[in-house]
Amino acid sequence: MQYNIKVQSECKVAQNRHRINRIKIIFSLVITILIALLFSGCETLDSLIMAQDQPLSENTIIAGLKEALERGTTLAVRVVSKEDGFFGNMEIRIHLPEELADVDKTLRRIGLGSKMDEFEESMNRAAEHAAALAIDIFIDAITQMTIGDARAILQGADDAATRYLENNYRERLYHSFYPVVERAMQEVGLARIYKFILDKYNSIPLIEKKEYNLDEYITNRALDGLFLMVSREEKEIRTNPVARVTELLKKVFG
């Protein structure tokens, strides 16, 4: 009897040792797995940090700038080419040229103020007609932008892209706008009003006769207003996170 009890006791001790050894093995295995996962996670985190610190690739830079410029120029053209895009915006509204200030004052004195107001409105309508042409020229300019241009713009002032477009493409825009302004002057009645105004003024005795290239004036003022609105859109994308509506814009301008 005592022998059986002793054998059973020894069996229980052996079973307990076996159980403990199994627990130790499992615990060691779990620790090993956790350590492996921890170091793997650290390596992944390090790689992510390194990736974030890496400079943007040239392809990313130029793609971001092109997207920003396409968005900015398209929005600007839409704004200025709609009705009242110029006439309703006091920041870019085209006023009578200074050279015709005497004409304006004189004709208003003799009761032709409404004609002068109509004249100013018609100048702005002509500019609104012409502005719609700009989008194709801007898109063409953007597609031809080089990596060097893109880097200089990205590192430049808030209106660096606008200045790039103006410096390189204003002349081309001018030659595209000019004939449209001429046609628009006919369509909105500006040429007729202008002739009427000058004829009235020049018919006044003892007064210096006036002549003025109105087509050239309207074309230049239309371009001034257009580039001002493009610069507004560019600055918005650069400085306002809300305006960066795509991941690419956030990456390049963030």
How would you describe this protein?
- This protein has helices spanning 2-53, 58-81, 101-109, 113-131, 134-143, 147-154, 160-187, 190-202, 214-239, 247-253.
- It is mostly helical.
- It folds into two domains: 1-54; 57-253, no CATH class.
- Helix 4 crosses helix 9.
- The chain starts with a helix and ends with a helix.
Q: Roughly what percent helix?
A: over 70%
Structural class: mainly alpha
Largest sheet: none
Determine the N-to-C terminus distance: 85 Å
What global shape is seen? elongated
Count of alpha and pi helical runs: 10
- How many strand units? 0
Rg from C-alpha positions? 37 Å
Count of folded domains: 2
- Report the portion of residues in β strands: under 5%
Q: How do the helices and strands follow one another from N- to C-terminus?
A: HHHHHHHHHH
Ranges where pLDDT stays below 50 over 5 or more residues in a row are 2-7, 29-53
Mean pLDDT: 79
